[in-house]
Every structure is written in structure tokens, then in C-alpha cells.
Amino acid sequence: MERNTWSKLLFALPVSTALLLGACGGDSSEEGESADSGSDSNGEIYNYEDFPQTVTNDTEPTGEGVLKVGYASDTPFEGTLNWAFYQGNPDSVMMEYFDEPVFTIDDDLQYTNDGAMTFEVDEDNRQVTFTLREGIEWHDGEPVTIDDYVASYEVIGHPDYDGVRGADDGFTLIEGYNEYKAGEADEISGIEVIDDHTAVFTYTELSPSLTAGGFWAYVFPEHYYEGVEVADMSSAPQTRENPIGIGPYKVDSITSGESIVYTKNENYWRGEPNLDGVEVSVIAPSSIANAVETGDVHLVEGFPADQFPDVADMEGVEWLSQIEGSYTYLGFKLGEWDAENSRVDYKPEEMKMGDKELRRAMWHAIDNDAIGERFYNGLRWKATSLITPYHANWHNSEIDVPDYDPEEANRILDEAGYEDTDGDGLRENPDGEPLEIQFASMSGGDIAEPLANYYIQSWAEVGLDVSLTNGRLIEFNTFYDMVENDDPSIDIYQGAWSVGTDVDPAGLYGPDASFNYPRYASEESTELLQQGVSEEAFDVDRRIEIYNDWQELMAEEIPVIPTLYRAEVTPVNENVVNYGLDIGYNEENLLYNLGLSENE
């Protein structure tokens, strides 16, 4: 989800991937409604490609006013407001207004040199020279130097770092990084600072991932955290209460978990912003459409797509849409995280969901086509692969995956030994013991519960006893705490990922990726993931071949079931100027150019 428009100017987690998304639902359906009953008001099926991607208001902005943004969520933002430490999407939404990446991307999701920093690759010497533009300041007036970029690597790689980044090639391939991370060295030997604006990084090898999101994309205010131990940085006031950045707006005040008020950064390096300020507020999905209609907000981040049919004709609003680099999925717990060795402990033979034939049958039992059409009116649609159509050149649309076929699900379960031995309508496991599957799903909009119930009902129709973990939907932050910590009350879970610019999925499914929540790791998968970032993968055709093989392997092994791809629909007040969802660098739609055509 990394677009170089104003609202998506972010590069996230390892492999520049993975933002945790909010709850998977957000609909006005009634509880218990099946996918076939439909939740839409008019039955129309929409295609995101039929919407504009940029507002049509082409008047000059006034240069004044406060933009009011609603973030649709029933979950407060956590308030970890530094790119090195945050984990959840709510925090990233809040950060994108005051801190920005130093790199830009093109429409093929490759880094460009249009941002605050440029780079030059020397393939012969396995080096990259990073050059920071002059005249860039932190919000407290201190100049940004190349040391602030180096500090990002030193903090994230520090042995006491308590965040989740630093395991991808952009870090681990730097000479001396792994020794530094292990506490065996006081500095990263492969990083040489030349002057205040220049540094040379030497890598053990160059990977195609580096220029597609592998370079860390943010500077770290080293001076601002002076005296703070790395272990304390994520909870420090500099992160939680008074964050600073280099973006066109700076934090003025924070209402914990609810809203942030930003004021203009008059010294922004690209030029003076077109607004006096911005206000971003968390608004419940059930109230967000009304906030748009009454003019309480000018635009919405994360508008629930399922609500669109009911408000498509809202006056004074223009609707934009774009494919998201996101997908929802059903994950099966197949092992645990080995914290001591920072690796996945894949042990399917010990796990309830370890039989891939059981997982295959559960995939056959659900109808994601119907869910996309009935719950989301086509704005979400059946997913097949773990590499999404957002990465158009890499997505394998021909992959063979289990179709909706309850009869086939029943046949597979019968042959695998999952039989109803006591006549109660529910299958026992092959040992004749009760098979009680605990399913964790997030709370969210109105659709969250009926969607979870649909899956449970679908599995019940093929004789599987599935029930909600703790008997209820789980709040976003609690949900991911439980999933991350391999809570034994979770056998399967419904999650969502937003992917980054680089197609490399190792940050989510690699053996040393903490975000590998299913805890799946096989020799074949690991080998393919390693090949995908090797020097042979500089040949694009070869890299496509590697990732096609990996996509097919995942469809065979089924550590997760991809359920839905998605498009965002964004309501924008007709008074907003220079806003767009286009992918790739577009100077006109950068945040500092965003404005209002009339004062309010």
C-alpha cells in the first residue's frame, strides 16, 4: 500500500511490506446473514477501474484552511509514532501526515531519485551511495544529516531494539550488520559516512529487492532521542507524545487514541504547504458516512467499501478508487515462534491444523466469490495467490486453487479420516477424538460478525466444529497480540496484510520473519524465497518464474487461504484540490500541494 501520493507516501515493514490492517469487515449486514443473502442495497456490482483516481477539482488552492480527515476504525490508534517502532495501520495513518519517506517510487513500484535522498548503485563493488539533499530540517529546526539515515539502521539493528523490523535484505545484506545485531560489533562495518550528506553502504551481495523497497526509507532524529536507550525508545515521549518528522505538517497536539492536530511546517523542503493544518480523527465505521455527508470531514482514510452502495449518490462528494496492495486471509497455526533463535518452529505434526488435507477441505467449503459480490458489491473479490494483483507483473492469475465445492470438501475429509463417528453431525479427527477448531477474528464494522459467522457456518455444513475464540470477536490490538504470541486458544484466524513496494514475500512467510504468524517454514519455500532475492533474480523473467513457483507451492501447502483482494473507495469533498490515489510519483498530488478551493 505504498503510493507516492500524499496519503500513501509510506514505506513500511521488512521487505518494505506489511502493515497490519484493521478489522477485515466493515459492513451493514445483519448478524448471521449468509453470503448468498446479500448485504447491498441495490445489487449493483462495481469495478474499481471505473472510478477516477484523482479529484476533478482543478482550481487553485487558497493556501489556507484546515483539512479534516476521518480514519474509519473502531480501534484507537496505539500511538507508537515512529516508523522504526510502529506495527499497526492506525499508527501509520497518523504518521504519514508529519513524516515522509526519503525515497519516491514509480508506477512499477521501483525507487526513484525524486525524494529527499538519492541513491546510486555500483554493482561491481556491491555498493550504494546515498546522498541527502541539502536544506532539509526536522520539525524542531535541526538540520537533517546523513547520520540520521544511518541512525535508522543502527537503532533497528541494535541488540536491544524491541521492534519487528531489520530482518529483510535491506538490512541483513549490509556488511557487518548481522555482527552488529548480534552484539559482536559496536558499529556496522559496511556503512561509511563520507560527509554530512553522503554515505556509502557496502553489501555482501546486491538483491533486486533493494531498489524495490529494500532500502530503509526513513530518517531517524538521532539528536531528538539523545540520552534515550534503544530499549526505551519505543515507549519514550519522543515516540508517544511529541513525535517529530520531516513532512509538510508537524504534530501540534494528540488526543490519545482519538485524534491528532497538525500545523503547517513552513520550512518544509519542497515548499510551503497549501493548508494551515490538518486534523485526523478516528471515527467509527458506523458513523463515517454521516461525517462525510455533514461536512465534518473532507475525506476518509479506510472508508468501508461495503457502505459505498448506500451512499454512492451523496451530494458534494467525489468518489475515487484504486486497487489496494492488500489482501485478507485465513491463517492456520502450524507451529510457534522460537524467540531464542528468532525463527519459526514449524511443527505441523503437533498442531491441530497440521494436516494440509483438512486445510484444503476448509478452502473448498467457502465461497469467496459470493462474499466479494454480496458483502462488498465487487469492490473486494476472490483472492487466489499470496502475491496480489497490485504487483501486476508478478501476480500469477493462472494458479490452480481450490474452488468452492462442498462436495469435494466432504470427499477430502472422508478420505483423510475425518468422520462423524458418534452421529452428532460433527466430524472427529482421524484418531476418533473430538475436533474442536477455535477461530479468531477481529471486531470491526457491521460486516465483521456476519462474515465470521459465514465462514463458521460454511465449515459446519461439511461437518467441522468451528467456533469463535473466546466466543466473540476480538479487538484489533488484542487480536494481534494473541496471534503474535501464538495463543493456544487460536487454531485459525482471519487476518489481513498490506504489502509494500517489493514483491518479495519473505517478510511475511520467511523462516525468520516474526510476521510469519502461521509459523510455516519448509525447505522448498525457504529455498524459493532465497532465490527470489539472489543475484540470479536480477533477471526479471527468472524472478517471475521463481515467484510463480512459490505461489503454486503456497496453494499446495496452504499455510493460509487468501480470501479477498480489495480496492479502496475514498469519498472526497468537492472542495478538495490536488488529491489522488494514483500509483507512483506525482508531484501534483503530494501532501504539501493538497489544498482547499474555498475557505471554510
UniProtKB/TrEMBL annotation:
Residues 35-44 have a biased composition (Low complexity). Keywords: Signal, Transport. PROSITE patterns: PROKAR_LIPOPROTEIN. Residues 26-47 are annotated as: Disordered. SUPFAM superfamilies: Periplasmic binding protein-like II. Residues 118-510 form the Solute-binding protein family domain. Pfam families: SBP_bac_5. It comes from the Bacteria. Belongs to the bacterial solute-binding protein 5 family. This is Oligopeptide ABC transporter substrate-binding protein. It comes from Corticicoccus populi. The lineage of its organism: Bacteria, Bacillati, Bacillota, Bacilli, Bacillales.
